[in-house]
């Protein structure tokens, strides 16, 4: 059988480069036929030299000297995702910018291996409906959701008592609230267990990432919010658990590497031998520990879950306000504690905007961005 064509959106990022390592190891099964990035032309050029994809797209070229046959502008994501020679789209774009391509790929009946969790948070109902209506499959790349998918192994939501999502706790797990309030950008970028892009690394420090993941799990698996729990697990070895109605609990474990869930999203429900993943060494790990979330010191988690429960435009507002607030924090315009203050104020002010159509959600997303920008004064 010929190899399966893969479009990789966000090829130059943390998930994107992990995905290329996976594709390279399994080149008899998968071939990257389309690669896109935002503006990192040099990194994309190197990948093109290595993989010779049929399609290359750059959303915001940094110079005018772009190879003639490259796609440019926002539309290149949809172009890459809907090509006839593409069967699987790995969406590893960060933020709401990935939504259009996910919807287009699902409408074209493709499998979407989704790392881009923000778009499920923003428009979960629309994305899952689109997948259902057109026969496209939505398979999570996020390690927690990959774990849950593997533990569920096809069981229905009615068999599930509870989903238990693990969180590393981030760099401030053991810090007191005064210290957290004064955290610098470099403090927040020092994640204990995962090497990731800067946006999700900050989200892991505030626990916004875990709120996004609870909402993501709700949409992917159809489990109500009151049956999704979060527990802190600093070693990031147990990637998440499912407690079934009879009290049995299944957990999925593995070394903290995104290559594992990326490969599973490509092969699901099958598994492929992968010599790139070293043998699992429980004795070497020694002990695995679990603790409760310190909600008072990490208010972002409850805030995001409340936005998810509220539904409508609230999760889109939460997500967009968070994206903008994180960008301001990274640029030094907002203190760490200002992130949750901005997001909370935005959800209060705009969370009840209409959210029943894609246009309404895009309007809420834009309003939340304007609101936070105005608040920070830029
Ligand atoms: P990175 O910042 O490392 O990479 C983002 C990628 O998307 C880059 O290729 C970037 O291109 C591209 N990109 C950025 N903005 C846009 C845009 N507006 N339009 C098109 N492309 C864009 O992020 P990560 O790889 O860390 O994360 C990607 C997604 O995966 C996020 O949604 C994150 O939450 C999720 N995720 C990440 C994990 C990880 O381990 N990193 C784990 C689980 C989920 P360029 O290089 O040109 O800027
Ligand atoms: Mg995750």
Question: Can you describe this structure?
Answer:
With 378 residues, the protein is α/β, with parallel strands linked by helices. 46% of the residues lie in helices and 15% in strands. The chain is built from 16 helices and eleven strands. It has helices at residues 14-25, 41-51, 75-81, 99-107, 118-134, 143-152, 177-181, 185-188, 198-206, 208-221, 259-267, 282-285, 299-310, 314-330, 336-350, 358-376, and strands spanning 4-9, 30-37, 55-58, 71-72, 88-91, 111-114, 137-140, 160-167, 228-232, 238-244, 249-253. The protein has a seven-stranded parallel beta sheet with strand order 4-3-2-1-5-6-7, with helices on both faces. A four-stranded mixed beta sheet has the order 9-8-10-11, covered by helices on one side. Helix 2 (41-51) links the parallel strand 2 (30-37) and strand 3 (55-58). Helix 13 (299-310) packs antiparallel against helix 14 (314-330). It starts with a strand and ends with a helix. The model has no long low-confidence stretch (mean pLDDT 97). Magnesium ion is lined by residues 142-144, 213.
Give the helices and strands, then pairings.
Blueprint: E1 4-9, H1 14-25, E2 30-37, H2 41-51, E3 55-58, E4 71-72, H3 75-81, E5 88-91, H4 99-107, E6 111-114, H5 118-134, E7 137-140, H6 143-152, E8 160-167, H7 177-181, H8 185-188, H9 198-206, H10 208-221, E9 228-232, E10 238-244, E11 249-253, H11 259-267, H12 282-285, H13 299-310, H14 314-330, H15 336-350, H16 358-376
Parallel strand pairs: 1-2, 1-5, 2-3, 3-4, 5-6, 6-7, 8-9
Antiparallel strand pairs: 8-10, 10-11
Helix pairs in contact: 3-4, 4-5, 5-10, 5-14, 9-14, 10-13, 13-14, 13-15, 14-15, 14-16, 15-16
Residues 10-16, 37-40, 59, 77, 92-94, 97, 115-118, 142, 194, 196-197, 199-200, 258 line the site of NADPH dihydro-nicotinamide-adenine-dinucleotide phosphate (NDP).
